[in-house]
Specification:
The protein is of the alpha/beta class and 353 residues long. The chain has helices at residues 25-31, 78-81, 91-96, 145-148, 151-166, 181-192, 205-213, 227-234, 250-258, 301-313, 331-339, and strands spanning 5-6, 13-22, 47-54, 66-69, 108-110, 113-115, 128-132, 136-138, 174-177, 198-202, 218-221, 240-245, 260-268, 290-293, 323-327, 345-349. It is 27% helix and 23% strand. Strands 2, 3, 4, 7, 8, 15 and 16 form a seven-stranded mixed beta sheet that branches. It is globular and about 60 Å long. The protein starts with a strand and ends with a strand. The structure holds zinc ion (2 copies). Residues 24, 26, 45, 153 line the site of one zinc ion.
């Protein structure tokens, strides 16, 4: 833990006092050097907090607003204008350059030494941080910020893949390969969509048990010797209409593809490190099967995240069942538990000891 100085918000930025932050696999990838961001850097990309100050051009937010900080985008490039902001041309720089939007200045300093940040334009492991107004979303004051911190990346990614990309109909079969936060969010969205059966696949028995208590009709251990055949059998014989690969393992993607029914779709959302390859039997793509990926649930965060929060508040998206809280200073324990599968969604109470 270090004390840093934070810059004043630029015209389109907000200064946020962070109350809670989710921890995601991408933070761990960055810690381990699998991100281009220079070091030392402040990570964290699922911040929830209270606006402290706003830049001169910010009209949508005011001090005291409760907010979550979500996936950043420029709003000006062709993909953003087409409504696909998660594929923004500037996404890589906005997430991983270490600099504020425009790449000219840093959010933090430590005396004269540079400290890189603006991770996903938020660096939410800091108790006071800068975000762009564009990726900062106002949330209802009654909603607990230490649960909403699960939404900006993990819940958005899984629920968005189902509700924005796969768009299942009632009665469609659905398989979750991997039930961490993203896989669980997808599973909850599939249940909300009326999917049946819903099959959960994971390495951890505790997660499979929770999946069954939250809507999975079947659970299969990921090391089942005939995994794809078993999933196809449970999905009615010909295979599954939809599979979500949220494990980030080549074998899981291969099994997802082999579990599909004709015309079924497997969508990859798992976070694999650069250079990881998958092999598929070419024959498995015949029969109209589709394999695709998506980033951050392909969501328009200013519209989609408030919708998910409403579903959570109505009891239809029980994200609180996935969350375990840790004090800010216990960040390393939280990461260890997450990597070991002992917790599904680790949320730091930022600033709390
Ligand atoms: Zn993430
Ligand atoms: Zn853009």
């Amino acid at each position: 833990m270090q004390t840093l100085e934070v810059a004043e918000p630029g015209p389109e930025e907000v200064l946020v006092r962070v109350v809670a932050s989710g921890i995601c696999q991408t933070d761990v990838h960055a810690r381990d050097g699998f991100s281009p961001i220079p070091l030392p850097a402040v990570f964290g990309h699922e911040g929830a907090g209270i606006v402290e100050r706003v830049g001169v051009a910010v009209g949508s937010l005011a001090p005291g607003d409760h907010v979550i900080m979500a996936n950043p985008s420029c709003g000006k490039c062709a993909d953003c204008r087409a409504g696909f902001e998660t594929y923004c041309t500037d996404a890589a720089a906005l997430k991983h350059s270490g600099y504020r939007a425009g790449c000219a200045s840093l959010a933090f300093s430590h005396g004269n030494a540079p400290v890189y940040g603006s991770f996903f334009q938020q660096s939410s492991f800091a108790s006071l941080t800068l975000a762009m107004a564009r990726n900062t979303i106002k949330v209802p004051r009654e909603a607990p910020l230490d649960v909403l911190a699960a939404f900006p990346c993990g819940v958005n990614t899984g629920a968005g893949a189902v509700l924005n990309v796969l768009k299942p109909q009632p009665g469609d079969s659905y398989v979750a390969f991997g039930v961490g936060t993203v896989g669980f969010a997808g599973l909850l969205a599939a249940k909300l969509s009326g999917c049946d059966p819903i099959i959960a696949v994971d390495l951890f028995e505790s997660r499979l048990a929770l999946a069954q208590s939250l809507g999975a009709t079947h659970a299969v251990h990921a090391e089942h010797p005939e995994l794809a055949a078993e999933v196809r059998r449970l999905a009615g014989g010909r295979g599954a209409r939809f599979c979500l690969e949220a494990a980030g393992f080549p074998q899981a993607l291969r099994n997802a593809v082999e579990s599909l029914a004709p015309r079924g779709t497997a969508c990859l959302v798992g976070s694999a490190r650069a250079g990881v390859e998958v092999s598929l039997e070419m024959r498995s793509l015949q029969q109209g099967r589709v394999v695709r990926g998506c980033v951050q649930g392909e969501s328009d965060v200013q519209r989609f995240l408030p919708r998910l929060i409403e579903l959570y508040r109505a009891g239809e998206l029980p994200v609180d069942r996935l969350v375990r809280h840790y004090p800010h200073a216990a960040i390393n324990d939280a990461v260890d538990d997450m990597v070991a599968g002992k917790t599904i969604k680790a949320v730091l109470r930022v600033g709390a000891q």
